[in-house]
Every structure is written in structure tokens, then in C-alpha cells.
Amino acid sequence: MGLDDNRPPTSARHLFRQPRALQWFENGRLVKRQEGERQAGRFELFLDLLYVSMLANFAETLAEDISGAKLVKYIVRVAHRHNALPLSTLTLVPLRGCSSSSRHPGMSVMYGNNAPFVDEEIGAMRATVGCYMVARISCAAAHLLYSFASYHHRAQQRLWVAFTLVAMCIYIPLYFDSVSLRGKIAAAAVGVVFEECAWIFCYSPAAKKMLKVRYTTAVDIAHEVDRFAAFYIIVLGEYLYQIVVGSPAAIGFNPGLLHAVWTLVIAFCLNWMYVHNDGALDGTHPFRYSVYTAFGWVSIHLPLAASLLASGHVAAATTAENTLHHAERWLLCGSLGTGLFCLYALALLFEDKDAPGTLLLPKHLRIIVRPIIGLIIILLGLRDGLDLTSTLSIIMALIVFCLVWENISSLHRGAHIFEPWTDTTYPEQRISDESTTPAIRNQLSDDTSL
């Protein structure tokens, strides 16, 4: 159902606009205020670029000094930024020229510059935690303001604000120098888990039943799917940036150029796998299948982005290197294998509606190669004795095989290798041929009769 939101020209533009829900559920029935593109999507892409640049900085810090402790810190940092970003765009929708629209990106820049040094300076720790808390509180304030301006999401938004304020108290010990680094990491991990669980609960059917509300939140599915796809493509940019900038593969044909091409092929295949999903002709997206598959689909993008950023940084850096240390090989293979497991999990969440026998193989046989290849790549990281070129070549060949397997197994039963070419001539030429051919035949028949 859609609502006509046309307004007189005199009220169309204001410096401060009233926040309004774009879509919601009313007694279980979906209602949209208007159809069309969401203007906030352009700002969201801008924030995604900033978000990925921060994560790339974290991945570079991890690649410079690879260890178990550094990996844990990397995961915690990425999780915090993942929690802070999705709700930040709410401040961009209702306010035109308001300072809160730029406060969160500003805090993100400060966070990204200080987070790599939290284990070295207490000042960096305090600045990082402070930026994160300001970002979260600003999001909570925007939601609270929104709840007064629009009744459609009021109950769930205020519940989330309450949980957010409670979660901020978990991070208070991080300000004190007397707390050990392990204690701070534990507190940060608890805070991340609490916030993620609170977010899922506040917008779940359980919360809707508990609050007994008539109006509840609804997701613009097409918009969110496009946004996550754009975000994923930006993440894959980590594979591509360093293979060109600074000309690391110059001059002519050299091993560095081969590494760059293999890295490009890996990124291309990863992008294809994400778009290909489970290969079904008729399926249901996790957003439409159930609430829990929707939450799962969104949440899996966190480890997916973290793993591909780390592997992309190491893979692209091989363009300018001749050797691959054991720790770098472990990070490259482990993170890339984890990314394939995440892509497998995303494909599992899709509902396959194809009738049995429609495609060459059923869904699970089509996508089972992803975790198998992922496990092989992870074990490859434990293999000593392989040089850099051999390691990257094996990884590339495995991922290409996975892509070819999925595309072939997703074909119709009885499909041919090449599709017959039709409609290769211009329409006016076909019309001309059809109009002249009968006349020629009649003329030939008359001559024959004579």
C-alpha cells in the first residue's frame, strides 16, 4: 500500500524538516509513504566509503604486525565500527544542513586515526572510546528525536535507545589506566555482543509482541540489498587499490604483474559469487523469507567484510613483494577461507523455489564447493615451502574452479554450451526482406510458366 505524500510547494522546503517514516507495518500490513529512490542512499554510500577506509587502515595495521592478540583487536575494532555505522544515516534524512549530519563522520575520522594505537597510549584509548560513545549517543539522540516526530517506530526506537545507554556504561572501564589491556578487550567484546543482541531483540517479533504495538518497523528491502551490494564492492576495492597505485608491477612482464593479475581474478570471482547467491532461478531473499534470516544476512556481512579486507590487503601487497612470510600466508589464507565460508552462509539463507530437476544440481550441491575450497585455502596457510607465486596461483585456481562449478551446475538440464544467435539483423532490414521475398518468388513462378 502506498500513500500520496504530495504537499503544497510552500511547505516542500525547510531548513529543518520533520522526520517521517518511509515505510512501516500497520497491524501486520506493509505501508509505504511513497515509491521511488531514497535520497539518503547517496549519503549512505559516502559513509560506506569512510567506513571501509577505516577498516582498511585497521587491516594494514594488522598486516604489519600479525599475531593472535592483534587479530583479536582487529576483530573488536571492526565490530565496533560495524555497530556504529548502520544507524548513523538516520540523522541525514530529516535534517538539512544540521551539524549532527557531519558529527558522526567527524567522530569516525578521529576513531580511525586513534584506534590502531589503543594498546600503546592511554590517550589514544580514551579518544577512541570517546569517539565511539559520542557516535552511538548521537544515533540514540536522533532516534529519540525521531520517536517524537513520528509515531510509526516510536516504541521500538525508545526501547533501542534505552539499551544503547545501558551498553555505553560497559565501556567506562576502558578510560582507566589501572584496568589491564586484556580486561579492556574483554569489556569491549562484551559491549559489542550486548549491542548486537539488543539491536536484534529491539526489532524482532519478540519485542513487537512484548510492546503490543500496532505500528512497527519495516525495511526497504530493495534499498538495503543495493546498499549492502555497494558496500561489498567497496570492500573488494582493497584487492584492487594497491595493485595499481604506485605502479608496483612495473616494468613489463614480471612476477609482480602476475601477482597483480591473480589478485584481480580473485576479486572478480568473489564479486561474482556474491551476486550469484545460490544460483536459483526462483528464490526468496533472506529479507523476505523471515525476520531471523534477515538478521542473519545482515550480521554475516561483518565477518565477511573483516575477512576480505584483511586478505585483500595482503594479496594486493604481494604485487610489490617477492616473498611471503609465514604470518602473512596464514593471514591471507585464513581470512580468505573465512570469507568463502561467509559467502556460503549467505547463500544458505536464500530459499530455493526451483522445482526438482530444473537445474543440473540442487542448491546444496551447487554451493558446497565454497566451504570445501575455503577449508583447503585455510590449510594451505599452514603449508611451508611454497613460494609466493605458487601460493597465489593455487588460491586463484581454486576460486576460479569454484566459480566455474557454480555457473555450470546452475544451468538448466539439457542446456547447450552456446545459445543460438537470433535477431542479429536490423528490424527495418527484416521488414524489407519479408516484403520483397514473396514478389521475387511470384516473378520466378511466372517466368517458369512461360
UniProtKB/TrEMBL annotation:
<feature type="transmembrane region" description="Helical">
    <location>
        <begin position="363"/>
        <end position="382"/>
    </location>
</feature>
<feature type="transmembrane region" description="Helical">
    <location>
        <begin position="329"/>
        <end position="351"/>
    </location>
</feature>
<keyword id="KW-0812">Transmembrane</keyword>
<feature type="transmembrane region" description="Helical">
    <location>
        <begin position="287"/>
        <end position="309"/>
    </location>
</feature>
<feature type="transmembrane region" description="Helical">
    <location>
        <begin position="159"/>
        <end position="176"/>
    </location>
</feature>
<feature type="transmembrane region" description="Helical">
    <location>
        <begin position="188"/>
        <end position="207"/>
    </location>
</feature>
<feature type="transmembrane region" description="Helical">
    <location>
        <begin position="257"/>
        <end position="275"/>
    </location>
</feature>
<keyword id="KW-0472">Membrane</keyword>
<feature type="transmembrane region" description="Helical">
    <location>
        <begin position="228"/>
        <end position="251"/>
    </location>
</feature>
<dbReference type="InterPro" id="IPR010640">
    <property type="entry name" value="Low_temperature_requirement_A"/>
</dbReference>
<feature type="transmembrane region" description="Helical">
    <location>
        <begin position="388"/>
        <end position="405"/>
    </location>
</feature>
<keyword id="KW-1133">Transmembrane helix</keyword>
<protein>
    <submittedName>
        <fullName>Uncharacterized protein</fullName>
    </submittedName>
</protein>
<dbReference type="Pfam" id="PF06772">
    <property type="entry name" value="LtrA"/>
</dbReference>
